[in-house]
Structure formats: structure tokens, C-alpha cells
Amino acid sequence: MKTILISSLSIFTFLFIGCEDAWYQDVDPLIDVAEDSELKDRDDLPFLINGVKVRLGTTHDNVSMLGDLLSDQLEFTTNVQNATFPSYRNIDGMGSADQYDDGSGFDDNNSSGYAYDELGQLRKYADLLIETVTALDASTATDDDKEAFYTGYLYGGLARYMYATYFGLEPGGDGGSPIDGSPMIYSAAMYADARAKFTSAIAHATDEQERILNSLIARTYLYEGDYANAAIYADAGMISSDLPLQSEYSAMATNEYYQHSGIGRPQNVAAIRFLNYIESDSLEIGRLPFQEAPMLTGTQRHIQTKYDESGDPINIISWQENHLMLAELNLRGESVSISALDAVNTVRSVHNLAALESIDFDIIYIERDKELFCTGNRLPDQRRWNSWHTTTNTGTDHEVTIYGAWNYLPISRSEKNSNPNI
């Protein structure tokens, strides 16, 4: 009898729903979602600008941290309490968790895939901002228009820079990514696209912002090995009075280095060599702050405390990085406004470190390792120097061999499955 009653009620409910269209049509509109087509007025520009900046924050930290984990700067070990993400182990192993993993599943890595999706959203939001402000009547432009153009071009360029620097299609291959279902856009073309965006931003920039853009352009040329053009732009780049360009965070939108490679949850730890740097010169603690990670067993490891608060910002580019570019370019025979030794010592003086008496490429490589720690620069530096690590947790009692061959994070499997052009 109970079964018959339940069935009758179910049928009645179904018929009621089917006959009353208003049951599902007469609903209040969403209050926390806006269609792109609804955000086309000048009054919408501040909202769109802020949306692009927020997405940069949630993208830059994630991509940079995972890039550092793929490099030899951060390492993953379950000897540390609460270090449990298998996706981090896979990235630390350059695509293979162990000798039994052939790396074929690396494109299904959820941590990397999430970062790739966020980067795609950043690119889309930045391009949409340019599309929106361009369609407005220029004769009634306001300061919001200027900021929209600058933000859209700058962040659209940063998105393309990150595609070229951090993502690739196959192990041992070149970097880059498709955009909007396109064929693969490899690093050279993607860096050129990034530079086009940065160059377009200059028309809407202050003097200080123009120097930031020049430094960003210089970095793309440096990573490509075009030292002559890198020197031109780095020489017109950031100076010591310039504040860094940063991605910003809060207690609600936390810095990933803090959250998963620091105090928040110490899953990824610093390579042992950073402790050796401090042992060789105790003043290095000023730019390389660490604390002990909570261990389950084995060699004591350390986590970075460069970002010891969840809302700490992350440098995208700084005058210190520009100085290190100038130093390297000077050593490579390019004509720039400062010598390699003076440029490096100017950076070291910020941390009250003793001036060096000589300089060479090995020293530049090490100075970049220290100064640009946990900013995503190590992976491209390893590619440029062709200096690859074959072990992780190196110098500890849990050192293991790396079996993977990826030197870029993988384009996600979902992108491959949905894009017939790659």
C-alpha cells in the first residue's frame, strides 16, 4: 500500500511540474552572475578591471608555484606532515611519480589543469576588457577608459607570457598553448603576441608603468635568447625607485606559496641548497627566510617564509630583476648603462650583503636563484642554462631519482580532448 501511495504521489508531482510551466520559468534572476553581453557600458569598466586583476592573482601564484615545483627550487615529500597531494609528487617528478609511471597521464594532473584553466580565463577576461572599452565612444572617454586599456593590454600580455613560459604540449618539446581552439601557438609566436600587448599598453601608461612594460618586454627577449633587443628594453626598464608590479592576495584569496608551500600547509619544501646558501653567508637569511617544516620522519626540511601571511603579494617584475637582466646582458657583450658587477652589487646591497669582487655567468645564475626565489623564474632559467636536475629531495635521506622528462607544465587533457587542432 505504501509503495502504491508513493508511486501515485510521484506521478502527481511529475504531472504538476509538467503542466505548470511557471514552476520553472518564474524565478528571480541570478544576482551573482552577469553575462558578458550585459557588461558593455562605461559604468561597467571598474567592475571588469577589478575582475581581470582578481583573476591574475589566482593565476599568477598558482602557475609560478607549480613552475617552481617542476624546477629544482621546490620539492615534494610525504615525509612532511600534511604533504599528501599526488599531483604535486607528479609535478616534482617532472611528469612521472616513479619509475613505473611513463608520464602518459601527466596531462590529467588536476593541479596543473586547474592552473591552465585559470590562465585561460585570465586571457579571456583581459581580451574582453579591451574589446569592451574599444567599442565605447572615444569622444566621451574617462580615466576609466585609460585604466581599462592599460589593464587589458598588460594582463593580456602577462597571460600570453605565462603560456609561453610555463606550458607545453609534450615532454622535451617547446612551450606555448592554443587559444580559443586554435592550433598550437609555440613560445616564439606567443612571446611576440605578449610583446604586442605590452607595446599597446604603453600608449596608456604613466612613465613608471612604461618602465615596467619595458622590463616585461626585455624578459621575453631574454628568454628567447635575443640579447640585443633584451638590452634595449632592459636599459629603458625599471629603476631602483620603482615599486614592483605584483599580484595581490587576501585572507579570502590566499597566496598559493603560503597556502601549499609555506605556513598554511607545508606540502612543498625548499631545496637543501638554500640552507647551504645561508650557511655560507648568514646575511642571506634576509632574502631567503625559512622555518622548519613539521616532519614525520627523515632529514629535517624547511619551508619558505618569504610569504608568511596569506595576503602577501608576489612580484611579477621588479627593478632588482631588471638589474639582474642588465648584468647578464652586459656579460653577454651587450651595451647597457651599468656594468654586470655594479648591477649585481646594487641588488645585493638592498639585503646588506657584501659586494662581490668579480662576476661570471655562474654567479649570475646563483644570484637569480636567490633573489628571484619563489617568483616562478627558476624553471625558465634552468631551460636557458640547460641545467637540469636528475633527483629531487637532493641531499637528504629521502633523495629519489626523477624519471619524468617534462620541462613545461602540460596543456590539460580537457583542452586536448576539446580542441581538434592539437
Overview of this protein structure:
Helix content is 50%, strand content 7%. The chain has 422 residues and is mostly helical. Helix 3 packs antiparallel against helix 5 and helix 12 (319-331) packs antiparallel against helix 14.
Note the main attributes of this structure.
422 residues, globular
In short:
With 422 residues, this protein is mainly alpha-helical. It has helices spanning 2-19, 22-25, 45-70, 86-92, 110-134, 143-166, 187-202, 207-224, 227-235, 256-261, 273-280, 319-331, 340-349, 361-371, 378-385, 413-418, and strands spanning 74-76, 167-168, 176-177, 185-186, 245-247, 268-270, 290-292, 302-304, 314-317, 391-392, 400-401, 409-410. The protein is built from 16 helices and twelve strands.
Fold blueprint:
Layout: H1 2-19, H2 22-25, H3 45-70, E1 74-76, H4 86-92, H5 110-134, H6 143-166, E2 167-168, E3 176-177, E4 185-186, H7 187-202, H8 207-224, H9 227-235, E5 245-247, H10 256-261, E6 268-270, H11 273-280, E7 290-292, E8 302-304, E9 314-317, H12 319-331, H13 340-349, H14 361-371, H15 378-385, E10 391-392, E11 400-401, E12 409-410, H16 413-418
Parallel strand pairs: 2-12
Antiparallel strand pairs: 1-6, 3-4, 5-9, 7-8, 10-11
Helix pairs in contact: 3-5, 3-6, 5-6, 6-7, 7-8, 8-9, 8-12, 9-12, 12-13, 12-14
